[in-house]
Amino acid sequence: MEGRLPHCIRFSEAYGRCGSLSPARPGKATAMTLYGKLFINGKIVREGTSSDDDSDHSFRDKLENCLVGLCAVLEIPVPLWLKKNTRELAVFRKTFFSSEQFIEKVWFDKLEIMLAGGDLYN
Fold this sequence. Notes:
Strand content: 15-25%
Number of strands: 4
Order of helices and strands: HEEHHEE
Strand order of the largest sheet: 2-1-4-3
Shape: globular
Number of domains: 1
Largest sheet: 4 strands, antiparallel
Radius of gyration: 14 Å
Distance between the termini: 30 Å
């Protein structure tokens, strides 16, 4: 299926097992923006953003679309999403991916992503 994560554990499968990012309130998610930074030796070497404002998409779909879009903007492969990423994003609204979470060899040490501030639900 086009636009889906090209790795063995899709984000939606990992999300479904942890489930802690479910909306606390009923309603459709509004626009989502995901910010990303690439680091080498603790220094930011590239930044980018990706947004999804389709009101028909669930929170999970928006997050998946934003992650795939952000990786395209940063010109990097899509990382493997682990349970720790779900927990960190739920608690801190940000998480990071080490170079070991990429199937392909990457030229940077870490990718950090952060949800934009504001209310995600109506």
